[in-house]
Amino acid sequence: MYELLRGLRVVEGASFIAGPSCGLHLAQMGADVIRFDQIGGGPDFRRWPLAPNGTSLYWEGLNKGKKSIAIDLGRPEGRELAVALATAPGDDGGVFLTNFPVGGFLSHEALCAKRADLITLRVMGWSDGSPAVDYTVNAAAGIPMMTGPVEDPRPVNHVLPAWDLLAGAYGAFALVSGLLRRRETGEGAELRVSLSDIAATSLGHLGQVAEVSCSGDRPRMGNDLFGAFGRDFQCADGARIIVVAITGRQWTGLVKTLDLSEQIACVEAELGVSFAKDEGLRFLHRQRLFPLFEQAIGSRASTELGPAFDSNGVTWGPYQSLHEAVTADPRLFTGNPQFQTVAQPSGVDYPTAGPACRVEGVGRGSPGVAPRLGEHSEQVLADVLKLGSGEIGRLFDQGIVA
Amino acid sequence: MYELLRGLRVVEGASFIAGPSCGLHLAQMGADVIRFDQIGGGPDFRRWPLAPNGTSLYWEGLNKGKKSIAIDLGRPEGRELAVALATAPGDDGGVFLTNFPVGGFLSHEALCAKRADLITLRVMGWSDGSPAVDYTVNAAAGIPMMTGPVEDPRPVNHVLPAWDLLAGAYGAFALVSGLLRRRETGEGAELRVSLSDIAATSLGHLGQVAEVSCSGDRPRMGNDLFGAFGRDFQCADGARIIVVAITGRQWTGLVKTLDLSEQIACVEAELGVSFAKDEGLRFLHRQRLFPLFEQAIGSRASTELGPAFDSNGVTWGPYQSLHEAVTADPRLFTGNPQFQTVAQPSGVDYPTAGPACRVEGVGRGSPGVAPRLGEHSEQVLADVLKLGSGEIGRLFDQGIVA
Predict the structure, then answer these.
(1) Which of A146, B314, B353, B378 is the most exposed place for a label (fewest CB within 10 A)?
(2) Which ipTM score applies to this complex?
């Protein structure tokens, strides 16, 4: 955890990935993030993967470093507590992160009646409020039809919930931008980030909406990189690697390492082109180029090729399983200072992820420990809502909190 | 464009997706983003897809709403200009976004000698500075080995540069967080966001690092959703749809719509489980469940099923191509107010993406037009560096700027 957001209090009433990952980013930058959940756990409390003791490793991973209060949201008094938390006074409070519906008891309008300068960051599925998860939006946005082997026409779902993760990170950006504005003007805002808008705008920003508008769908191309040189290749020892050359320098380094200059020059002479000067030509003529690289890479072991690639600045990588990466790749995990093994409620020992950002010259602190559900109920009621011990005792006795 | 970041000046010296998308998010929230490039264009200036007139739709999409200055970075005087821009005085300046190397002429240390409170957001490939692109990091992080048909062991590259996009959005969050801190303490910072840290920490946050630490690699499972019920199915009219049921409510709505209650109850009785109460059991026993859904979905047309699913709150979606989505899906594109068709340098008419965030109750403004390369060279030299017309003329005459 860093301290860039120290002193900021954020109340989170959210589940699954987009909202909670947004809260996680804020917490790992030093914000005091208070997550409220239904007593017994919200809809994401048992999401797989699970630890041997039954704890959700997913919930644990997404809620590190937050405080937890468990509330009976089915009763009016519980709902009033959630509203009171989201709208509690103080210059550094008044920030609410949620995926609750636009129009319910946690509507921005209802909350603003209690605190006019509230910033609400609302994460949604479809922007019209209808239900969606990452995978259904992804199917509608066309990605699975572009993914996978050329000869197999079936759609291929992504396994990384990319839109969820992107909504969480972009949501954190929007929230802090709203806060910056509030500090200047005193005005709150409701900021809505939906998975559907995230997917649609991303494909717009990448030029793909423009592309299909002028030339129709990009055909499926398997593992080939679009618009430049790149693909998976098999080495002599059977290892699969990916090699990419987008810039001229990446290309010349690659050709040099594989000792292919003469053969490439022959192809260039025949076609009347220069591959070093135009990455698009490398893509256009890739079927002429690939056999040369298959032969050159296929005749050498990955253990020999890797260091040679590295010393010539080639952009390449091995295909690894996640287990291989977690147990043996120092750049990603085993030697990555953003990870620390800390005791978590699951009892599983694993490298726990801190923030993705490195703040140079500043100590990292702990990546954070996930709370037990309701671990901070009493503390939050006392500190944020300033309730006395008698009142807190009554709320516990009546099962409004746990 | 919104105005949450109005008054903020950001200088961008970056290329490809992560850095420029970060700058784009800032620009679309109202920041004045000045991008400098090598005269003639940086390494991403001709990246595919291209418009019929040769313009890069990729560059156009990622640089909307920014100002452009073209500088000869190969000459000392050009480099000094880039340094002067990044470190120009003013309370709302002093923010530099880059993917230049850690140790070069745009090192944070060198820039801090000119402006001590500088915030540098540096986007990187591998966190150790070695070259990487999204696709090589993705291969190393294990995603392609988990993706694609079960019976085909080959790795499947993702076609969405998810890590790039995530680095851009998370980078924008980190940058604005740094700014908030600077406004309180006066201190600058160098913030480094690498594709490798983005990938590693994301897999950590999702619980997958913990999962492989205790139970090894998750086997490849094709289009099946991990840990709950979800997969692609084919309707009677041949249309493919994805159906997902993570929560109990999603499950009961799905079972009800497909009139499968009795058949599910038989399976539950036989296995001694309740699928409504535990999403993990739906995953564990999915091979028992899928045939029932294949039959029920396969006997009805998608045109009939879609409205029935919608009225019961089922989480589902069609598999569409991007062209279908762009031309006919009102929720993603044709009716999405975050998109507007504006005249761009490419001359292609397409819906241009504004910010992913909707700020409720506030006018959107234009999503922004991409600059011509060097379109704002003169203006930036005058406004930011306060150079006189004689000096500006000399810089143009000597080819230091264009």
Answers:
(1) B378
(2) 0.98
